[in-house]
Amino acid sequence: MPFRPRFDCLWCGQAWATRSPGDLEGWAALCPECLGQADENGFLRARLRTALRDRAAAAASAADASGIAELPTTGAAPAVTTPGDWEDWYLRRGPFSRGPVYDGPWSMELDEVTHWLDRQRLGGTIVELGAGKGWWTGLLAEKGELWVHDDDAASLEAARSRLVAHGLLAHLHQRDLLAAPDKQVDAVFAAYLLGAARSRAELGARVSMVLRWLRPGGAFVFVEARAGQDEAVVAGPGRALRTFTPESLVGSLAGAGFGPVETGQTRSSFIFGRAVVPA
Length: 279
Fold this sequence. Notes:
Elements: E1 6-8, E2 15-17, H1 24-28, H2 32-35, H3 42-66, H4 86-91, H5 100-119, E3 125-129, H6 137-141, E4 145-150, H7 153-165, E5 171-174, E6 185-191, H8 200-213, E7 214-226, E8 233-236, E9 239-244, H9 246-256, E10 261-265, E11 270-276
Parallel strand pairs: 3-4, 3-6, 4-5, 6-7, 7-9
Antiparallel strand pairs: 1-2, 7-11, 8-9, 10-11
Helix pairs in contact: 3-5
């Protein structure tokens, strides 16, 4: 079945609009709620398997057409920046495509993280740091008053278009992501903000900066690149990204003054979690 940006769910009939061409819902023609029940229903499980196969095949076809070689996902930091942007990164497109054997599991893990974020209880005033073109912004905009920050104006304009297309509202502002906070809020979300640190000292500064954004009792919700047994780096969009183990992330956050830290991880690619400021 081809990708459908808008569809009526094959199981419950609910009308649904996808956020991007990589959304699994558009390949399965199932809304997120029904997709989440695939473990309990044979039809939904079959649709999920077919959707994963079709999406992986489409990604592989695009990669073959571009003639771009594979990139390693671990090892030493690349000597030069990697072409592509965050949209390419999430969709495993262009320089980040490694073929269906690797891209299929990545997409499944990305869906796992997306469903996790969708379940997070966030409210009040929320800040998203480093939104890029708004991959996660639509989910966050439905949870509270969202302030979206990025240092790239063109990316923010793409994020704005994505929000408008889905009838969502947010405050979008171009600013240095490491600048001192201008207010305190109830929640901060960031993807790969910590992993972009070029040194341990910069990592500590980034964690401390996030802490200053938050009111007592506020939550920092994050997505980062998962490490194996030891931290390494991966080739990210235009930069090298640090990978984390749960222990290293908890240590960095606790050392800066965060209270309880909960983390989870997918099989190979993502680590995610929530850290709370003591009330």
